[in-house]
Automatic annotation (TrEMBL):
UniProt entry keywords in alphabetical sequence: DNA-binding
Pfam families: Cupin_2 (PF07883), HTH_3 (PF01381)
Endoplasmic reticulum as UniProt keyword: no
Stored InterPro entries: Cro/C1-type_HTH (IPR001387), Cupin_2 (IPR013096), Lambda_DNA-bd_dom_sf (IPR010982), RmlC-like_jellyroll (IPR014710), RmlC_Cupin_sf (IPR011051), TransReg_Diox_bact_type (IPR050807)
Tagged with keyword Cytoplasm: no
MF term (GO), any: DNA-binding transcription factor activity
Ranges of residues in domain HTH cro/C1-type: 17-71
Native source organism of the sequence: Aestuariispira insulae
GO cellular component, one term: cytosol
Protein name: XRE family transcriptional regulator
Length: 200
């Protein structure tokens, strides 16, 4: 005899959304502005009048700095045990260029929910990084902490000095070189497309 499958109760996403929003002291207008979801849509979701799509949930949780699991758990994520990850320098994953003169330490956690990646870049004199185009809409940010780099972007060549930050996007194939006599230290951040939705 077949047993009837008992399904779990559908989570109250609207109620959980309201709890999380109020915990962060956000008005409907503020959350709408941060997430790109209209105020009227937010109100309907919180009152259980509509079921949000995954894309809408993603934008809302990102705007509030929470995990989608917090919504599914009924807004009780704040009570979960805090997680602290301490990664030693020697265990930080890294990418090396073919000539061994450039090292990119991967600082962003692999399981991050944020649409960005960040790296610590070390370039010995004569080092060069040839990059390939990133997903459409990606922006790149480079801050030079020590030394200087030469950035070739399409048909433009720019010197980026110590202490300077350069941002460009959407990202296309480009080249970064260290033509100086000093080792370069820099931070590189890749902001993926969802960071810039609706921006020109």
């Amino acid at each position: 005899m077949n047993k009837e499958l008992k399904l779990p109760n559908v989570p109250d996403l609207g109620g959980a959304l309201q709890v999380l929003r109020k915990e962060r002291k956000l008005t409907l207008e503020q959350l709408a502005s941060r997430s790109g979801v209209s105020k009227s849509m937010l109100s309907q979701i919180e009152r259980g009048k509509v079921n949000p799509t995954f894309a809408v949930l993603w934008n809302l949780t990102f705007a509030m700095g929470v995990d989608i699991a917090d919504l599914v758990e009924g807004g009780k994520g704040a009570g979960r045990k805090q997680v602290i990850e301490h990664l030693k320098d020697y265990s930080t994953p890294e990418i090396r260029s073919r000539d061994g003169k450039c090292v990119l330490k991967i600082l962003s956690p692999a399981r991050t929910i944020l649409p960005m990646e960040w790296y610590e870049v070390t370039m010995e004199p004569g080092g060069r990084l040839d990059t390939v185009p990133q997903p459409e809409g990606t922006w790149e940010h480079i801050t030079v902490q020590e030394g200087q780099i030469l950035l070739t972007l399409s048909d433009r060549v720019m010197e980026v000095q110590e202490g300077d930050t350069i941002r460009f996007g959407p990202t296309v194939a480009h080249e970064i070189e260290n033509r100086g006599k000093k080792t370069v230290k820099a931070l590189m951040v890749m902001a993926l497309p969802s960071q810039y939705q609706g921006k020109s």
